[in-house]
Amino acid sequence: MRDVYHEELDSIGATLIEMSGLVASALNQATTAIMNADLQLAEKVIAADDQVDALQKALDARALDLLARQQPVAGDLRTIITSLRMSADLERMGDLARHVAKVARLRYPEIAIPEELRQTVAEMGRIGEELAHKTGEIIDGRDVEAARLLEAEDDAMDRLHRALFSALLHEGTPYPVETAIDVTLVGRYYERFADHAVSVARRMIFLVTGDY
Amino acid sequence: MRDVYHEELDSIGATLIEMSGLVASALNQATTAIMNADLQLAEKVIAADDQVDALQKALDARALDLLARQQPVAGDLRTIITSLRMSADLERMGDLARHVAKVARLRYPEIAIPEELRQTVAEMGRIGEELAHKTGEIIDGRDVEAARLLEAEDDAMDRLHRALFSALLHEGTPYPVETAIDVTLVGRYYERFADHAVSVARRMIFLVTGDY
């Protein structure tokens, strides 16, 4: 039977995986909301982010408490510190999904993203969601190989982000400034969401291998 | 005479203060660079960010080493964990100053910010720089009162950020999409820079009072 200390360590890992699932789902729904001017779904995403924030707070409190009471050394110490950092990344990913949903809400009943850019934004949403799910798997399996592969998927996100800017700057009738602002911000939110997923993956590589 | 342990704790605080000064100066120079299409200054800011990153890495290594070797409890433990979080905020502020400089470089020899928006951007730069300097003072003095006041200054940044969007959306001849993209991103960088300064201030309040 495992002791209470190791049960608490495991529960911190389980919370991180739960956060990964929640932010993946939040980004999926935020993308649907902004593609369809779905106000109800946007409101749902915005409200649901409180849950991610609460999980982070609870996780951080437990981690700090473990540090103070158990004075862990070496591997366990590194695991706890890394968990604190991963929870900060995941919490921020939740904020960014909420930001996408807020743009959807702001422009309702209009659709913030022009029709011909929607495929690119949908693809950014799909990749972001997948990256978030993978962070959960990487944390669950302490999977360094999957963590290394995740960077390649972030490259795909960066390519889509650049494609979005190119499309905004197309020849012909220019987009309204409001559209340029919305698309620029939304593109940035997806890109940063992916950056934080990469950050989680890198922290796992560091935790397992000691390489940064 | 203080022991080595407390000297190391002090040196972590000194590094945070040094980082505050560097990111304040980086934002000042990045703002000058983007106002004047000053390529040399932009390149200088971009290159100088490596120093902030190196300070963060060294600080984090020292903090983790202290945690592992000294197994600090209560106040010292909280100080070290808070230092790790502040160093992450300050490192990100350095990135954001570098992002502003990169927009300056991208548009050189053009000036990325239209003339009539420059006063607002200059003011955002001034406030951001001041916030960064204040984080240094707050860390140095563990100054909860100054930390609380810092939020009011961030409100000024948010107002300027909204004013920037309003100006972009003015009546009359619309801005080119490229300008809308640049101003949107730059505005966001300043706003996020200020958010991280507020985060440092809040962490000090938490460290000293235990309130979050």
From TrEMBL, chains A, B:
GO annotation, cellular component aspect: cytoplasm
UniProt domain PhoU: residue ranges: 16-103, 122-203
Keywords from the named record: Cytoplasm, Phosphate transport, Transport
Cell location: Cytoplasm
Example GO biological process: intracellular phosphate ion homeostasis
Broad class of the protein's primary localization: cytoplasm
Superkingdom field: Bacteria
InterPro entries per record: PhoU, PhoU-like_sf, PhoU_dom
Pfam families from the UniProt entry: PhoU
PANTHER family found in the cross-reference section: PHOSPHATE-SPECIFIC TRANSPORT SYSTEM ACCESSORY PROTEIN PHOU
Entry's family note: Belongs to the PhoU family.
Function of the molecule: Plays a role in the regulation of phosphate uptake.
Assembly with partners or alone: Homodimer.
Record protein name field: Phosphate-specific transport system accessory protein PhoU
Source species: Actinospica durhamensis
